[in-house]
Design goal:
With 319 residues, this protein is mostly helical. It contains 16 helices and no strands. The N terminus is likely disordered.
Length: 319
């Protein structure tokens, strides 16, 4: 009798609600799901209002005859694919696309190679290491428009500091850095490389700190050269970080507008016109908002493709 009483007492009684009934599992799951959606809802609403709506509106605008009169009349009739055909048939679009490719590839290669070299250099311990790393961050902290204005003064053909310096050491002191159709795009790429080096250096330097020191010690004991160690240990261990740096660098470089406007305004003779500046020119100079929306959608599509690549690369690394 005592054993039966003890066993019965050991069994926990179901938790009763206010009405004296046990909780309903379905209702509990429903409340938990509502609580989860309650936490997610602010982010979903924010994304829908500030990202989803502008994106959908931009796509719709690319199929409309959207002009300054639309702001007064409210009428923006659909014109099918006229905006798209006009953009693709424009010779300037082909030039802008090619310049965007050159600008993006040149900037990424320069920023990554110099940033990686500086990251490897700063892994060594020497006096003023931290101070020098902090100073290199300055170009990244300065607003891009300010950097563009300063470099425009530096690269000025007649009064620029760079030409004056080159003249004092015996070189030609009248190089048209920003006014020559053959030099302007190269100059813009070099300035963008200067701006992007700190970002690459910081991210790659952080990745180098995660490489186990034992691997370098083992390579040293095996007699591996510095280049063999870098190729066989450093680069493979940095692969996830390199993917992040290149993809994020691409997505920020392909749409650059303010730097080019501050340096050359797309000139001379459209030699530095990119998809970003073409969007601005169509929308706010020529006031052809439909054509501007088309180029903007193309930029969004290009960025989305590389965003998918970034997510798939991270997923593969995780596996």
């Amino acid at each position: 009798m005592s054993t039966t009483t003890t066993s019965a007492a050991a069994v926990p009684a179901p938790v009763a609600t206010k009405a004296g009934k046990p909780p309903n599992p379905a209702r509990t799951r429903r409340r938990r799901r509502l609580a989860q959606w309650g936490f997610i809802a602010p982010a979903v609403i924010f994304m829908a209002l500030f990202f989803g709506y502008p994106l959908v509106r931009n796509v719709v605008m690319s199929f409309q005859d959207y002009s300054p009169s639309t702001f007064f009349t409210g009428r923006s009739p659909f014109n099918g694919t006229d905006n798209w055909s006009n953009v693709f048939n424009d010779e300037l679009f082909g030039k802008a696309l090619w310049h965007t490719v050159l600008f993006t590839i040149g900037s990424l290669v320069g920023q990554f190679c110099i940033g990686l070299g500086l990251a490897v250099f700063f892994t060594r311990r020497f006096p003023l290491n931290g101070i020098l790393r902090s100073l290199i961050l300055l170009p990244w902290l300065v607003p891009m428009v300010v950097s563009g204005v300063v470099w425009r003064r530096i690269l000025d053909q007649d009064t620029g500091v760079l030409n004056s310096f080159l003249g004092t050491i015996g070189f030609s002191g009248h190089t048209p850095w920003l006014t020559s159709t053959s030099m302007a795009l190269i100059s813009v790429i070099l300035v963008n490389i200067w701006i992007g080096i700190p970002f690459n250096m910081v991210i790659l330097y952080g990745g180098l700190q995660e490489v186990p020191k034992e691997l370098y010690e083992a390579a040293s004991l095996d007699g591996a050269s510095a280049w063999r160690t870098f190729r066989s240990i450093t680069l493979p261990m940095l692969r996830p970080v390199i993917t992040v740096v290149l993809v994020l660098g691409f997505m920020s470089t392909v749409k650059i507008l303010d730097l080019i406007l501050a340096l050359t305004d797309g000139g001379p003779a459209d030699s530095t016109q990119t998809l970003g500046t073409l969007t601005y020119q169509n929308s706010f100079v020529q006031l052809d908002f439909g054509a501007g929306a088309v180029v903007g959608n193309i930029l969004i599509l290009i960025s989305a493709v590389f965003a998918v690549f970034y997510l798939r690369a991270n997923r593969n690394e995780g596996k």
